[in-house]
Amino acid sequence: MDLSSVVQNINNVTKFVLLGLTQNDELQKIYFVVFLFFYLINVLGNLLIIVTVILSSRLNSPMYFFLSYLSFVDICYSSVTCPKMIADLLTEKKTISFIGCIAQLFGVHFFGCTEIFILTVMAYDRYIAICKPLHYTTIMTKQVCGQMVAYSWFGGLMHSLVQTLVITHLQFCGPNVIDHYFCDVHPLLQLACTDTYVAGIIVVANSGMIALSCFLILVVSYIVILVSLRSHSSEGRRKALSTCASHITVVILFFGPCTFTYIRPSSNFSEDKSVALFYTVITPMLNPLIYTLRNEEMKNALQVLWTWLQRWLGR
């Protein structure tokens, strides 16, 4: 990263003011309770999935390996924005330093893009399991699964570095008010005092095309899966559809708002804040519920874990 650019920006703008979700005092108190509850459910629910997958000998398939990493990314992703947003709901001055803003921008895109790649990898795993069941164990080995997760992290890192470098090479002379509850590329592009046309194109090409291309890959993969299910037994179709339905639900909830936000150029749309809540707060919170309520193996593993915990506490 060009440190001289960062230093120059610090000299011009040392901090940003976040307008947050609302300026209504009563609504802020309500939002504080609601989103604090959502965040706690997110962290505890995803931690429960991670612990269950690690401790359960039954959940040793690649699907649960990827699910545990998805839960970890969900915790990290929401933790980049939620604690600051929740704290700001009780403070009068909602400010963030320039360095803190850049760090938040980096974290949002790093964990967000990593989640996109992991969801895509999970779709590939389901495709192999359903369409090529005889070759599943030879294709989806532990080494291959580990490499897929590593590539997902690396892809998220590269994407985030591009977004961060685009912003740090811009000049910010003022104003410094961001109409959002976290630092993101579009609000920062609007505050830059230099021409942002090229930067805007890079942002759309980088963020938007990643979200859109991965979404199209997911759609095609599930069309192929649904077509192939015609040759399966009714019990096999039911089990496969139950597993895939959970993943499709998460994909729609996450990719829909992401694609809406990043596939278009920078704008002054105030609804961006509401849309962002879906992929930064709502979806990470719903993932544990979606993957546990519709998954018999996960529910059985949770029941075994709960029974073991009761016995351990009863000693």
From TrEMBL:
Localization in the cell: Cell membrane; Membrane
Domain G-protein coupled receptors family 1 profile: 45-291
GO cellular component, as recorded: plasma membrane
Entry's transmembrane regions: 30-55, 62-80, 96-124, 144-162, 197-229, 241-263, 275-293
Topology class, membrane: Multi-pass membrane protein
The entry's keywords: Cell membrane, G-protein coupled receptor, Membrane, Olfaction, Receptor, Sensory transduction, Transducer, Transmembrane, Transmembrane helix
Range of residues in the leader sequence: none
GO function term, MF aspect, one: olfactory receptor activity
One Pfam match: 7tm_4
Primary residence: membrane
Matches recorded under CDD domains: 7tmA_OR4A-like
InterPro entries named in the record: GPCR_Rhodpsn (IPR000276), GPCR_Rhodpsn_7TM (IPR017452), Olfact_rcpt (IPR000725), Olfactory_Receptors (IPR050427)
Similarity remark: Belongs to the G-protein coupled receptor 1 family.
Protein name, as recorded: Olfactory receptor
